[in-house]
Amino acid sequence: MEGRIDEKNRPVLTLSVNERPVSCLIDTGFNGFLWIDDRTAHRLGLYQHGQIYRSELADGRPAEFKIAIGKILWFDELKNIPIHVFQGERHSDFGALLGTRLLIGNVVLLDYNWGVISIRLPVASDRPSRPRD
Predict the structure, then answer these.
(1) What are 115-133's pLDDT values in tens digits?
(2) Class of CATH domain 2-126
């Protein structure tokens, strides 16, 4: 999978969510799968379950979200994942954040020199000489 570094030096990947393209900001501070604003969720036809959850954003502001189940295309495989649907005013010009839960088990290369992102499955030579602490 390939993405790009945008003009503001942000890592961006276009993901297929419910068979529609969604531009996602890769956010390593978010440990879920996807965080989508309610306007984007509506456009994608995501059904949001009733319970409202509360969280805190990286800047300390409170946030409310619901959970929806969406279908994404990840390495040519369709996967159903839980998606955090943000309730309220959008805090960024991105309708979606891609979190670390999707990145776990993959090798992620952010090449700011060439402005490209590569996400791939690991190979044996990627293994470090000693386990991480």
Answers:
(1) 999 999 998 877 777 766 6
(2) mainly beta
